[in-house]
């Protein structure tokens, strides 16, 4: 055989081999692998999406806080649409006849374009409407009902914490191929943060249509159907009774309360006021725009998004830094003559109290002058070459306590608060032209520093733990999964743990000292409970001062740490301290006996606005 014949045989063999491979592939596709028939037969099959039920949200005590309710989307297949009694249809679903006829006429005009593609005619019809429709469905050819689930709330609380569920917008659909038009998705709060677990997975049922396009049977006896997989339940860290009580205390007020279990970082309550009733955001949301335009901003979660000046509660941070740098001691004493005099006509004011005082008394009495002295010693530390270097070291300490950065809580939209920088002060005062007196407002938690109520509660938990904290979180466990390891890690501050007992003692005295001693938080006393706290009155250039208070209890083996922040409410002892202490009493004793204090907190509430939970 010559060379030409050999090449011809190779080419011929190659063509035969390729033809054989093609024939085998076609045989496989058309005879063996029936899944391709499903795609090929789309024109005679109907695909009905099976939507999963969303995972439940359960509180730390096993109480269901967020459940589901079944509703129905009424679907229409344009090509199957026949003449029907529109008045009877409107009667079943309580529709306005003229609007309904207009919608049907629009679908009818586009029936060639829409073909056999099911189209949503009516969203989220209640179960009672569906029951009536099912009895007469034979009268309405081309219509069928598709089951959906909506959220159902045990109590009208924690709307800012839970978030809400709505239809996926074009952005969500573009970012994630799982979502199709008409699908639901979690927005804000826990619903958004844990969407991947809560949503479950959609299924599909395939049905055969006859020559008249009527459903005859399940395709291939359901061999290609896929079942919907329900979403995973979440065990929340929230105590629903404490959350409800806190929201009741915050009625007609603006601000936030955050309660944390120091030994775990679990958030016991997270309250933003004014908040939202989650039941108002269920289903077709007619209330969202109204809430969004409300000047009180109920959709704004102040607990994790609002960087308030911490005020006098921040004196505890400066005390710890001063002790750790050894520029002051617990015995250091400073005088106060109604404030700290900076220059002629410029003074950081203070209230009347005994003078001079040591560190324990300074916490007990909340002396501004004392902390102006402490702060200057920190910034002007002889171990530092300049005020800038002293400030940078101070800033590093403050960050280690959780300020100026996100805590890492498992909620979207958390803000980091505000913490000034060298660049910022160079811009304000000029490079190399600012000293400790230039930024003295930081001594008392004012000026350029801002902390969210969550950060302030985390700071209280850090003191309760004598120097460390766990990342705050609102979900303890996702069904079937182990809790994340990051929630088990201790985060230590830069402060030596040996200095925290001094601060704890000062906070204890602020609450439990005898009358006439100048203690600022005596109103927070609870019979039988050793509560440690610190008041704050945060200056507000836009109106009345803000009232704030941080605390923890009991003194030994603390079970709860709280930060309360009430906007435009004046002294910390007036509103924030009693509110926080009532929360502690509710959590530790399961009931509140100081009903007179509750009544004072409720002053100004319209009669009958809400019963006590």
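Q: What amino acid sequence fits the structure above?
A:
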């Amino acid at each position: 055989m010559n060379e030409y014949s050999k090449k011809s045989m190779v080419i011929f063999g190659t063509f035969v081999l390729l033809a054989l491979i093609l024939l085998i592939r076609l045989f496989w596709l058309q005879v063996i692998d029936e899944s391709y028939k499903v795609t090929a037969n789309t024109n005679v099959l109907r695909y009905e999406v099976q939507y999963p039920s969303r995972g439940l949200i359960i509180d730390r005590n096993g109480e269901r806080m967020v459940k589901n309710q079944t509703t129905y989307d009424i679907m229409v297949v344009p090509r199957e649409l026949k003449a029907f009694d529109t008045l009877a249809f409107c009667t079943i679903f309580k529709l306005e006849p003229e609007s309904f006829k207009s919608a049907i006429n629009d679908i009818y005009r586009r029936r060639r374009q829409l073909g056999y593609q099911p189209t949503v005619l009516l969203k989220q019809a209640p179960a009672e409407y569906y029951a009536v429709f099912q009895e007469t469905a034979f009268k309405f050819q081309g219509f069928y009902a598709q089951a959906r689930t909506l959220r159902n709330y045990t109590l009208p609380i924690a709307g800012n914490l839970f978030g809400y569920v709505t239809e996926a917008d074009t952005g969500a659909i573009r970012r994630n191929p799982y979502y199709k038009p008409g699908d639901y998705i979690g927005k804000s709060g826990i619903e958004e943060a844990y969407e991947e677990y809560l949503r479950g997975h959609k299924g599909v049922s395939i049905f055969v249509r006859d020559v008249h396009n009527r459903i005859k049977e399940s395709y291939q006896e359901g061999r290609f159907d896929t079942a919907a997989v329900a979403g995973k339940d979440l065990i929340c860290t929230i105590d629903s009774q404490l959350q409800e009580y806190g929201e009741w205390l915050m009625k007609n007020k603006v601000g936030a309360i955050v309660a944390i279990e120091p030994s775990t970082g679990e958030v016991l309550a997270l309250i933003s006021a004014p908040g939202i009733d989650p039941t108002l955001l269920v289903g077709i949301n007619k209330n969202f725009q109204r809430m969004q335009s409300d000047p009180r901003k109920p959709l704004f979660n102040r607990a994790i998004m609002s960087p308030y000046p911490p005020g006098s509660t921040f004196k505890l941070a400066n005390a710890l830094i001063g002790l750790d740098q050894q520029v002051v001691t617990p015995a250091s004493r400073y005088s106060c003559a109604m404030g700290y005099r900076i220059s002629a006509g410029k003074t950081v004011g203070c209230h009347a109290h005994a003078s001079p005082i040591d560190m324990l008394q300074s916490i007990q009495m909340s002396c501004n002058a004392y902390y102006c002295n402490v702060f200057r010693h920190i910034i002007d530390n002889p171990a530092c070459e300049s005020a800038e270097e002293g400030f940078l070291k101070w800033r590093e300490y403050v960050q280690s306590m959780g300020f100026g950065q996100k805590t890492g809580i498992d909620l979207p939209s958390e803000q980091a608060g505000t913490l000034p920088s060298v660049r910022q002060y160079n811009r304000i005062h000029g490079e190399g032209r600012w000293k400790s007196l230039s930024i003295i407002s930081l001594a008392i938690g004012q000026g350029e520093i801002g902390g969210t109520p969550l950060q302030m509660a985390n700071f209280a938990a850090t003191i309760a733990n004598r120097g460390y904290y766990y990342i705050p979180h609102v979900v303890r466990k996702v069904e079937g999964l182990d809790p994340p390891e990051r929630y088990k890690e201790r985060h230590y501050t830069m402060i030596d743990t040996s200095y925290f007992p001094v601060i704890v003692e000062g906070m204890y005295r602020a609450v439990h000292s005898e009358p006439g001693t100048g203690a600022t938080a005596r109103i927070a006393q609870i019979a039988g409970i050793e509560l440690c706290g610190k008041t704050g009155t945060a200056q507000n250039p836009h109106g009345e001062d803000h009232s704030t208070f941080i605390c923890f209890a009991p003194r030994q083996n603390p079970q709860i740490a709280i930060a309360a922040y009430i906007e435009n409410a004046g002294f910390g002892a007036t509103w924030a301290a009693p509110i926080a202490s009532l929360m502690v009493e509710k959590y530790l004793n399961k009931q509140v006996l100081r009903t007179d204090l509750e009544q004072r907190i409720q002053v100004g509430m319209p009669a009958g606005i809400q019963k006590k939970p």
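Q: And what stands out in the fold?
A: The CA atoms of residues 46 and 356 lie 85 Å apart.
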